[in-house]
Write a structure and sequence with these properties.
Blueprint (H helix, E strand, L loop, with lengths): L2 H10 L6 H42 L3 E5 L6 H9 L4 E15 L4 E9 L14 E4 L14 E5 H7 L6 E12 L2 E15 L4 H4 L2 E5 H8 L6 E6 L5 H12 L3 E5 H4 L1 H39 L1 H9 L4 H36 L7 H4 L10 H18 L1 H8 L3 H6 L2
Parallel strand pairs: 3-8, 5-7
Antiparallel strand pairs: 1-9, 1-10, 2-3, 2-6, 2-9, 4-7, 5-8, 6-7
Helix pairs in contact: 1-11, 2-9, 2-11, 2-13, 9-11, 9-13, 9-14, 11-13, 11-14
Length: 407
């Protein structure tokens, strides 16, 4: 152990007359630990929330959406062309519309999506999300059978229906009659119930076959082609390549553009929380300054004796810097360890439940990213080190003659 570190630890662990200074040092250490722990937990919360929402959104929707100005006449040919773009691993058509779904127990407005059951699993996670029924049951087995519909679990519970039950769909696209425009109504059977994990889909979406959606919504062709890419980070570049490679009549948009407002708000919240909680570390650093200033005043006689024995001002400065650095390292280590342990417990046992209809997910996930963790630890230690500079310089400049004259 070096001379400077030995003296610094002796001062930190002072007893009897200097017990008050040791108490201040302990409070400073606890302050650093609490600040680091709170910052680790806050960053883990926002990172987990952002990642969970992103995964749920990307599992429920496509990564890239493609429209064609002249309409999509042969969607199978368009799917084949788009699938050949480098980075695209799946493509499928979609028809979007609105409908009123009715049962004996209640009614609900839903977003209707017409899909090709053979191609949709290549685009979204709907097949893996099926709880009851199957995706292939959308198409009727015979001409006499009713067309099928897939409902989210929350919507099925709201309507009180199960697989095999019959519901009624009412769409704004009506049929012209002598009495005027009559809304189009069709009876369908519940072919399956899914849980995508995103409340927006589980409570307000219904999936039907592409052919049935065309008849029900009065559309001759799909509205758009949805794409799934191998790497979601490449979605913006793939989206921009679609018009360049296939022609100017193609218009595309990626998932990042469509959800830009949501993720920008989450990023802003993460930064605001980090700055706010980071002030706790700053307060702890001020405590370190106060404790070192008091120690310099208390130990002025010792400092003078050390200087008269040949200790250089630089070594005196190092002693007090090491003292503050020990407080910072111990507090940061304790806070970071406690934060990691608490994040693991909160995420493992899902202790914080939140209303799914507000936040889209049922619980708060905690994910500690190595980069965030490293930034918190390094920043806390640097702040604690900077807090030692002023009192350490004051100690190194102490005049031993003046200090011993009044002892």
């Amino acid at each position: 152990m070096s001379f400077e570190l030995f003296i610094a630890l002796r001062y930190l662990l002072a007893r009897r007359k200097q017990a008050f200074i040791s108490l201040i040092s302990l409070i400073s250490t606890i302050g650093v630990a609490v600040g680091v722990m709170a910052l680790v937990i806050a960053l883990a919360l926002m990172t987990g929330l952002q990642g969970e929402l992103r995964d749920r959104i990307l599992g429920s929707t496509a990564h890239v959406y493609v429209w064609k100005s002249g309409g999509i006449e042969d969607y199978r040919a368009e799917v084949a062309r788009l699938s050949r773009i480098d980075g695209v691993i799946g493509a499928g058509p979609a028809i979007l519309g609105k409908a009123l779904i009715s049962t004996d127990r209640g009614d609900a407005f839903i977003s209707l999506k017409g899909i090709d059951p053979a191609l949709e699993p290549n685009v979204t996670d709907i097949e893996r999300a099926m709880q009851r029924g199957s995706l292939g049951a959308l198409a009727p087995a015979t001409d006499d059978d009713l067309p099928g519909i897939l409902l989210g679990r929350n919507l099925a519970e709201q309507l009180g229906v199960a697989v095999g039950d019959t519901v009624t769909l009412l769409t704004p696209q009506g049929t012209l009659s002598p009495m005027g425009m009559i809304p189009r109504s069709r009876r369908v059977r519940v072919a399956g119930i899914y849980t995508l994990g995103l409340y927006e889909f589980d409570a307000a979406y219904g999936f039907v076959s592409l052919e049935f959606a065309q008849r029900l919504l009065g559309k001759a062709a799909p509205d758009l082609i949805e794409l799934r890419v191998a790497d979601i980070e490449d979605a913006p570049s793939i989206s921009s390549r679609v018009p360049r490679e296939l022609g100017g009549d193609y218009v595309s948009q990626d998932w990042a553009d469509m959800n830009e407002a949501l993720f920008s708000a989450l990023w802003l919240e993460k930064m605001a929380i980090s700055i706010t909680i980071g002030l706790i570390v700053m307060v702890a650093a001020l405590n370190i300054i106060a404790s070192l200033v008091l120690l310099v005043m208390e130990k002025s006689r010792d400092i003078a004796i050390l200087k008269t024995m040949g200790t250089s001002p630089r070594r005196v400065m190092t002693i007090f810097m090491l003292q503050g650095l020990v407080i910072g390292v111990v507090g940061t280590t304790a806070g970071a360890s406690a934060g990691l342990a608490l994040c693991w417990v909160l995420d493992r046992y899902r202790l914080i439940q939140i209303p799914m209809d507000v936040y889209q997910i049922a619980y708060v996930p905690f994910v500690v990213q190595p980069l965030d963790f490293a930034v918190v630890v390094i920043s806390a230690i640097v702040i604690c080190f900077l807090a030692t500079i002023y009192p350490s310089r004051q100690a190194s400049r102490l005049d031993p003659v003046q200090a011993l004259r009044f002892e």
